[in-house]
Amino acid sequence: MVKFTVEDRNGSRKELEAPDDMNLSLMETLKAFEYNIMATCGGMALCATCHVKFSEGLENLPEKNDAEMDMLDTLPDADGTSRLACQLRVDASLENAAFKICGEEE
Question: Three-state SS string across 46-57, please?
Fold first, then answer.
């Protein structure tokens, strides 16, 4: 199990614990916890509606791939802490991370 803290768009923070043995993306996990994430493209890094910004743990995440970097470049509010939740796996790299959901709502 991996523990991380999620801040919703309204500012409420919650620590979650998610299984790390199912190869789920962070986007899929957030949807399973009933966070309001559009995920229009279904996790293909084509819509950026699963945009999150990390306040803790960014240094432990894998490098961004080209598709993720290209999509983040289209967002006016993206910065160095921005990632697409669909491109991150729920694994040890997310342990004790903290991030805010920024993408569009359904």
Answer: CCCCCEEEEEEC
Q: Where is 14: in which H helix or E strand? A: strand 13-18
Pairing mode, if any, of strands 97-101 and 51-56?
Answer: antiparallel
For residue 87 the two structure tokens come to 């491109």
Residue 54 identity (one-letter amino acid):
F
Residue 89 · residue 18 · CB < 8 Å: no
Neighbouring residues of 47: CB distance < 8 A, sequence distance ≥ 6: 38, 39, 40, 41, 71
Please name which of 80, 55, 58 lies closest in space to residue 69, comparing C-alpha atoms: 80
Sheet holding 82-84, edge to edge: 13-18, 2-7, 97-101, 51-56, 82-84
Domains of the chain (ranges, CATH numbers): 2-101 (3.10.20.30)
* pTM for the full predicted model: 0.95
pLDDT in tens, 66-95: 999 999 999 999 999 999 999 999 999 999
